[in-house]
Design a protein that fits this description.
heterotrimer, A mainly alpha, B alpha+beta, C mainly alpha, A: mainly alpha, 2 strands, C: mainly alpha, 17 helices, binds heme-A, binds dinuclear copper ion, binds copper (II) ion
Chain lengths: 253, 246, 577
């Protein structure tokens, strides 16, 4: 076997033996330091230590979300492009086929719910890094972190489900008025945007349940923290996206 | 008409001369760059190897870049002129008006007739079998004297204002000899104008993939003398009248 | 390759081991798999292109056990050829393939940041390829609307054979590809930003790493837009929305347009993706070639900061030029002028890169190894295909050249051949990292010279055909006019050249098979390179820039008695011991 492969073997079983943390307790000295880890642009030490691992995953989440944002931006562009496109009727007058769509009132309640869920999520996230608990849990003297985080995650998940149900009710509300996906450009976009965002939230809720499970299943504390932390950032972004999209749907009809 | 296939066919439109000059200059310049660069490459490849020398001075590296940037700017400015002249403002009011309609897979040319106004047309009425390929509305009196032809006949030396439509998918209206290309987009009607300056028969091609008949979607452009054009109109007019009648 | 991953003497059961090696997250293994995947894709794409060439040179010639080629069959060949080559070859091999192979090593990381994303990306892309190829099995045949899939042709199943199931398959496949490349781009970015070894500052990253970083960003921002466009198109096809289909649109006797959709919306969305896409295809190639040029002329890159800057600049400007594909599409002519300017602007950094390569060659002594030959081939093709760019960028001229073979010539030289030669260069260069052996030099030279000559023979005449007004997507050159029929001799010439070109690739395949077993063992750092992928073991810190060869290396080396003419990044300076 060629020389290079012996190297890859070494790599892979080092991967198994040494998890790649310097055996330091997983404390996040900047509780809210989320900004995609710009701080370690210039020569930081190689990806070791729980902090670096956290940064690594946050980086992933944030760059993924950047792409996701472009997806919604494309829909938004299409929204405005489509809004302004019409046709000439036989008399040569320019007709727009866009019929302004009145938002089902329940959406405002849903929005409030989503904001609230973001709040609970943030509280859950903060619990992850309370130094006393982390040390205690890291030393194996019980699971204060998990204990503190679980209820808030629960709350977030429940609120998330509530939001989704609310969205569903909004849809059936429109359906009652005879406004379906294909009815009018405005309804195309309403269903498309709420649908795409809803799909993201379904993933989010599943993710939260997975995170809850991880709190008991994952063996390493830092991994538990990472899971919850990344879910939190994802959840916040979905909240932001919704505010933006909903604002557009309301004010740009 | 056969020509050596290493350049554009002879130009036959008033605006084409500017295009050809531009093409000659720019292709010349870029071929020059290509030859220069490759002369250099080949020399570098063939020259005896020597150990690397001290880096060139910055100016020696930046000078050619500045030169080429200047070249690009010159190309851009000179070309913007031609483009602006071709497309920015529409045809003169006196221009002859013809509607070009693309459909899988042929071109129709719709002349407004004596009253100089197109009859309105609706997709529901399209029926090539009944001789109404564009769906002209029989109710509309303007349509009565309209002419729908499968070849484009134009009088020499008169500006023509083409109005492009498509019934189904995007087609590309391409007159190589007139240095003219514009897509015909369904749901839009786009105007292009030009002045043929040489009599002759020229190809009308479809330049936008529109389905399995794309390659077959060709028509003819006949540029004829003014009198011959009037004759042609006369020969076509009555025939169409009774089509519109039924 | 994958069994290399499993640890000898581990107590796991055989099944578990096979499973583990199948779904391994080892980046080197994944890199090789990515390359094999695009090798399959390029083989298929090449066969399709040769079938196309036969039909074009001898229209209506019967194919064995099939008969004459129908127009729709020709068009689905073009579509599949373009899709395979652009997505599954030129986006996959240089980006995911080579990056998985050497990126971690080059920045001194032991593993990718999120290896499982990389693996997931691979399997999704592989699935996408299978889905795409399955279009050939459909009764109605594959899609016929080209790799750009303009609606309404692509939005209305009735618009042509293959536009029903075939088009859906195409859309699903490309959708999967978007997701797959999106995942692996996330991993790349996180790796490059977060995993660099101590001392690997931005200013010390090899140019390949710069390119992979920018390309990953482009993938994140461009492919998601394409994905949105695909979703909209699928809605138009199946849910009865009207995003792209205009009112009263009449396809084969049926009125299918019920809202004021606009085909131009698709063009804008597609080309907003499409242009960055072509730079995603070429940026890694540029980075790779820069490294090779420095390595084999034993000299530092001329203007490394400039090269890094132009890479970023090309990436950014790439988002501002999409309109140059739409000059005559019905877009506002004023916009045409604006896009002409941005396009001219993007030509400048590309030209700067060319001069940096030429300058480096000038200053250095050139070693004619096979990888270097292919790197030179890349430069030659990039110039040859590039110089036609600024011509196409001018609306006044593009209004004649658009959708003619002039364009086909342009992008085959600069994308197909330049990109292809860069991939070849990379394979010849990094082969030791895959197999520990070197590829055969003599076969390599034959492969190079034959391909070079044949490629020019194939794609230069296309420019002349384009100037003569020969449009794209024509399955034969007959019609109501004789103007195109007069091109037939040239068509035949192109086809013969294409055959030589295709055959020359067999030499490469033979070399690949032979060398992987019997090639000369490479040993440590066979090319006397300075970048980290050639280091014996992953260093814990690096001390210098990536390309310290020749004179520069002597200056850097603190001790006068420095025998080798290069200083590797992992070599420490004297004072530091
Ligand atoms: C990477 C892109 C790529 C490549 C390599 C090729 C290769 C070839 N192409 Fe392709 N072609 C396209 C991209 C490409 N093409 C696209 C995008 C279109 C437009 C489709 C559309 O309009 O929808 C097109 C269309 C197109 C047409 C126009 C059809 C028409 O409009 O009527 C023709 C006609 O001759 C043609 C011919 C060929 C030929 C003879 C080759 C030969 O050169 C093939 C020889 C093969 C090689 C020299 C191998 C190159 C090696 C690699 C790429 C890397 C190898 C990979 C590994 C080692 C891992 N192509
Ligand atoms: C890797 C892919 C790639 C790359 C890098 C490029 C690079 C460029 N492309 Fe290309 N292009 C494509 C792939 C690519 N293109 C494809 C696939 C299509 C067709 C899509 C389709 O319709 O199917 C296309 C089509 C296309 C069009 C649309 C044509 C049409 O459909 O009508 C235009 C128009 O502006 C264009 C412009 C340019 C320009 C200005 C560059 C510039 O970046 C080029 C910059 C390079 C140079 C300018 C060369 C510099 C060197 C010199 C000048 C030598 C000087 C040296 C000395 C003198 C010593 N391209
Ligand atoms: Cu009509 Cu192509
Ligand atoms: Cu482009």
């Amino acid at each position: 076997m060629p020389a290079t492969f012996t190297r890859s073997v070494v790599d892979s079983d080092r991967k198994r033996k040494d998890p790649g943390f310097g055996g330091r307790p997983p404390l996040d000295r900047r509780p809210t330091g989320g900004g995609g880890g710009d701080e370690n642009w210039e020569n930081h030490s190689r990806g070791r230590g729980p902090r670096a691992l956290l940064i690594r995953y946050r980086l992933g989440v944030f760059s993924a979300l950047a792409g996701d944002l472009m997806f919604f931006m494309a829909l938004v562009t299409a929204f405005f492009f489509r809004q302004s496109s019409g046709h000439f009727d036989p008399h040569g007058a320019y007709q727009l086929d866009w019929r302004a769509l009145a938002m089902p009132p329940i959406l405002y309640i849903n929005t409030a719910i989503l904001l609230l869920s973001s709040l609970t999520m943030e509280i859950a996230r903060r619990q992850l890094f309370r130094e006393v608990d982390v040390m205690e849990e890291w030393l194996g003297l019980g699971r204060p972190v998990a204990r503190r985080v679980t209820p808030w995650l629960m709350a977030t998940a429940i609120l998330g489900v509530a939001f989704l149900i609310g969205q569903w009710m909004a849809w059936s509300d429109l359906a009652q008025q005879g406004l379906f996906f294909a009815s009018n450009p405005s309804s195309h976009f309403f269903y498309l945007i709420t649908g795409a965002h809803g799909a993201h939230l379904v993933l989010g809720v599943l993710g939260i349940f997975a995170a809850l499970a991880s709190l008991t299943l994952l063996r390493r504390l830092e991994l538990r923290q990472i899971f919850v932390d990344c879910m939190a950032w994802y959840w916040h972004s979905m909240g932001l996206f919704w505010i933006f999209l909903f604002g557009m749907l309301v004010f740009c009809q | 008409m056969l020509y050596a296939p290493w350049w554009m066919p002879p130009n036959a439109a008033a605006h084409g001369y500017a295009v050809d000059t531009l093409m000659r200059w720019d292709v010349g310049a870029m071929v020059g760059c290509f030859v220069l660069a490759h002369g250099l490459l080949i020399w570098l490849l063939l020259r005896p190897r020597r150990s690397s020398t001290a880096p060139l001075t910055r100016s020696v590296e930046l000078l050619p870049l500045l030169l080429l940037t200047a070249l690009y700017i010159a190309m851009a400015i000179s070309a913007e002129r031609v483009w602006a002249h071709e497309r920015f403002e529409g045809a003169a009011p006196a221009a002859l008006r013809v509607e070009v309609v693309g459909q899988q897979f042929q071109w129709y040319f719709h002349y407004p007739g004596a009253d100089a106004t197109y009859g309105t047309s609706q997709p529901q009425l399209v029926n090539a079998a009944l001789g109404n390929p564009l769906g002209l509305d029989p109710e509309d009196s303007h349509g009565a004297d309209d002419i729908v032809a499968s070849e484009l006949v134009l009088p020499i030396g008169r500006e023509v204002d083409l109005q492009l439509r498509s019934l189904d998918v995007i087609h590309g209206f391409f007159l190589p000899d007139m240095r003219l290309k514009q897509n015909a987009v369904p749901g839009q009607s786009l105007h292009v104008h030009f002045t043929p300056v040489h009599e002759g028969v020229y190809p009308v091609l479809c330049s936008q993939l529109c389905g399995l008949g794309h390659a077959r979607m060709q028509a003819r452009l006949r540029v004829v003398s003014a009198s011959a054009y009037q004759g042609w109109l006369a020969s076509r007019a009555p025939h169409h009248a009774e089509v519109a009648a039924q | 390759m994958s069994e290399a991953h499993t640890v000898p003497g581990s107590s796991r059961s055989r099944v578990a081991r096979i499973f583990a090696s199948l779904f391994t997250t080892d980046h080197r293994t994944l890199g090789i798999r990515y390359l094999l995947l695009s090798l399959i894709a390029v083989a298929a794409g090449t066969l399709l292109s040769l079938a196309m060439r036969i039909q074009l040179a001898w229209p209506g010639i019967p194919f064995p056990r099939h008969g004459p080629m129908l127009p729709e069959e020709y068009l689905s060949l073009v579509t599949m050829h373009g899709t395979l080559m652009v997505f599954f070859v030129l986006t996959t091999a240089p980006q995911s393939g080579f990056a998985s192979l050497v990126l971690p090593a080059q920045i001194g990381a032991r593993r990718m940041a999120l290896p499982w994303l990389n693996a997931a990306g691979f399997w999704i892309v592989a699935l996408a390829l299978v889905v795409l190829l399955s279009a050939f099995l459909l009764p109605a045949g594959g899609p016929i609307s080209g790799w750009t899939s303009y609606p309404p042709l692509s939005a209305v199943p009735a618009a042509g054979p293959g536009q029903g199931a075939g088009m859906d398959v195409w859309l699903v496949s490309i959708g999967l590809f978007c997701i797959g490349s999106w995942l692996s781009a996330v991993n790349m970015l996180a790796t490059i930003v977060g995993e660099r070894v101590r001392g690997m500052t931005l200013g010390r990253m090899p140019l390949t790493v710069w390119s992979w970083m920018v390309s990953s960003l482009l993938i994140l921002l461009a492919f998601t837009v394409l994905f949105a466009a695909l979703v909209l198109l699928l809605c138009d096809r199946h849910i009865g929305t009207a995003f792209f289909i205009p009112r009263g649109d009449l396809v084969s006797g049926q009125i299918v347009g019920h809202g004021d959709g606009s085909p131009l919306l698709w063009l804008h969305l597609f080309w907003f993706f499409g242009h960055p896409e072509v730079y995603i295809a070429i940026l890694p190639a540029m980075g790779l070639v820069s490294g090779l040029v420095a390595n084999f002329s034993r000299r530092t890159i001329v203007g490394y900061p400039l090269m890094a800057a132009t890479t970023v600049l090309i990436g950014l400007l790439g988002f501002l030029v999409w309109g140059h594909h739409m000059f005559v599409s019905g877009m506002n002519p004023y916009a045409g002028n604006a896009f002409a300017l941005t396009t001219m602007a993007i030509a400048v950094p590309s030209t700067a890169k060319v001069f940096s390569w030429l300058g480096t060659l000038w200053g250095g002594g050139l070693h004619r190894t096979t990888p270097m030959l292919f790197a030179l081939g890349f430069i030659s093709f990039f110039i040859a295909g590039g110089v036609t760019g600024p011509i196409l960028a001018l609306p006044a001229l593009d209004a004649y050249l658009h959708n003619t073979f002039f364009v086909v010539g342009h992008f085959h030289l600069i994308m197909a051949m330049a990109g292809g030669f860069a991939i070849f260069a990379g394979v010849y260069y990094w082969f030791p990292l895959m197999t520990g052996r070197l590829m055969n030099e003599r076969l390599g030279r034959w492969h190079f010279w034959l391909s070079l000559v044949a490629a020019y023979g194939t794609f230069l005449p296309m420019h002349l055909e384009g100037l003569a007004g020969r449009p794209r997507h024509y399955y034969q050159l007959t019609g109501s006019t004789s103007s195109l029929a007069s091109l037939m001799p040239m068509e035949r010439g192109v086809t013969w050249a294409a055959f030589v070109l295709g055959t020359a690739q067999l030499i490469f395949l033979a070399n690949l098979c032979w060398s992987s077993r019997h090639g000369r063992p490479a040993g440590e750092n066979p090319w006397q390179a300075t970048t980290l992928e050639w280091a014996a073991a992953t260093p814990s810190e690096i001390f210098r820039g990536p390309y310290e060869y020749g004179a520069a290396a002597h200056d850097q080396a603190q001790n006068g008695a420095h025998k080798q003419d290069f200083t590797s990044q992992w070599e420490s300076l004297r004072e530091q011991e």
